[in-house]
Amino acid sequence: VQLVESGGGLVQPGGSLRLSCAASGFTFSRYAMSWYRQAPGKERELVAASSSGGEVTNYASCMKGRFTISRDNAKNTVYLQMNSLKAEDTDVYYCQAGSVYWGRGTQVLVSS
Fold it and tell me: For strand 9-11 and strand 106-110, is the pairing parallel, antiparallel, or unpaired?
């Protein structure tokens, strides 16, 4: 099983980034997918989650309206569109499959 995140980087406050998580080694379309984030010394927190078919999504309250989770089951990929980024969004962002599998994360740095 592999989950490989990409798309992180340095962005100015107010900017946007689109994270991708490419999955392999399991039946992607059967798994709910989530994005989490974690800062050094802090607990990992849920950012957004998607049902296996993408019809149902959930967001942490502080991300609602700014972040959008989506998935392409034909490409075995889940995305996180992040808009209106703030300095406090700086974290390592992780992809999770079905509360079982984790990616290694991608760093997002929001700074001017």
Answer: parallel
